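Bench notes, bay 3.
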Amino acid sequence: MSAVSVTRRPNLPAVRPGRAVRWVAGLLLAALFVAPMLWMVSGSLKPTNEVFSTPPSLLPHHWLGANYSRAVNYISFGTYLRNSVIVTVLTVIGTLVCCVPAAYALTVLQWRGKRLVFGLVLFGIMLPFPAVMIPWYIIFKRIGFLGSLAPLTVPPFFGEFVTPAFSSALAIFLLRQFLQSIPKELVQAARVDGAGTLRIMLQIVLPLARPVIATVVIMTVLSSWTAFIGPLLFLNNSSSYTLSIGLQQYQSQHFTAYNLLLAASVLFVIPVVVVFLAGQKYFVRGAARAGLK
């Protein structure tokens, strides 16, 4: 009597209609955000006459990788890149130097008027930069800052709530919300052991707050690197232009080198993408925990 082999199908997970709809919606939303980036990269490799060809094509008919070297040499790209790096690095340092102690004082320390001060911080979040840019312009003009990078780099070191880059008030808010999730017993135990305020902040609170600090750093880099209104208002000297302003030089009254502009835009976006991908894990964790409170 021959044995009959029965082949059993593996137990496949059931595909729920709701999950399928979410996947399709997520893919469509991702395509909506990725499509402009792909079009920018494609246009940066095309001749000028192919950028607006009809019908449009995603892949170039004539690949021009030399557009990137031409774009760098078309304007003072290196100078503008250096200025953008200086502004971004100093803005990040100034934001952390001012906002971390402020959030620590609003969370860990006990003092009168703490809620009132935090209310003023929340008011700074709701106040947009266009509402204060004229007073800022007058102040910087009188002290001789116009035309230099000082209007973009000095305010973060003084904890100004409304700046052309990432709001210091929002940074304080995110840091405070995260620090509230740290057990108070850790701080009390450190005080019992004789640790001072500064030591508690540097050796206990800051290592635990690395996710939210990374979140603040990423958001500050993104806003400072791509800031346009502030540099346009305060920088009246071409030698102090940042990349966001320098990209305008690809446009003239009678001609615009769109392929070179797209190539320079790709180079402009790359540092932002690298910073976000490098800190994505901390960014998601910090943003999630900061919102728990």
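Next record in the batch:
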Amino acid sequence: MSFTSDTKLELSKIVPDKKCCQLAEIAGFLRFAASFPVSGGKLGIRVVLDSPASARLFYSLVKSYFGSKSAPSIGEPKAITKEKTYNVTISSDMNATQILREVGILTVKEGYNVFDDWISPSVIKKRCDKKAVLRGIFLSSGTIADPARTYYFGVSCPNMERAKELVKLINSFGLKAKIADRNSRYIVYIKDREQISDLLNILGASGQYFKFQNVMITKDLKNRANRGMNCNAANLDKSVNAAQKLISDIKLIEEKRGLDILPERLYITAQKRMEFPELGLSELAKEIDPDLSKSGLNHRLKKISEIAAKL
């Protein structure tokens, strides 16, 4: 299963105790996954979901809040795409109109029924309601990438107005969601890993939250190890290059004038450098004189290079 599927499965097991939260979560489902067919002049509701667990949760929420008379029917529509989906239907005689009015999607203006593009503010007044409506929205249209591959959270919106409202809702929790235009669809997204982790916690997916945290920690440890290895390799390359340069300088002095022109301490240093080209400065210093420091050896090597430069 994907990280998105696992997250939806965990969230679908959360059934709010408070009636206000039940209504808010229903509103999230309806605003992002529902269409409203009209048959015989009467309004119905059809919710299409990609998870059977999400479909069962929506069924339970509607039945719990509005009563058994409004319990939807669940079925699998004929596949138009390879992805399996689940239809949850509430017909007109199951109080479809009442449900839409109560969640604030259907209102009456100047004697006509009007569909609002967002959810009534009265439904999401409290913090717990906002969390519940976010759960319903994510279960309807959300996706979270596997953090082992990349960091991404996204929700597809049909228009800019709805995307802006969703951004406002998410950012009310201190997050920084953004909007991207993708072929006439508007994607509300977050790419910051810490914010995605916080959002999982806000939604109530504690199991997935800890999985996400574990992946973050593991990736950080690997990155630190790789940086350490790269740093060591760079230092090794630097040391090897410096040793090779000095050996070239010593050979130049030997060819031009002979090593005998060097003072005794530089003569011994040059011989030991040629004898042990693979040693670092600390090890080479001990081969020359146990009391010779790394900085003292480095001073001698610079003198040799200066002599070579003059030649």
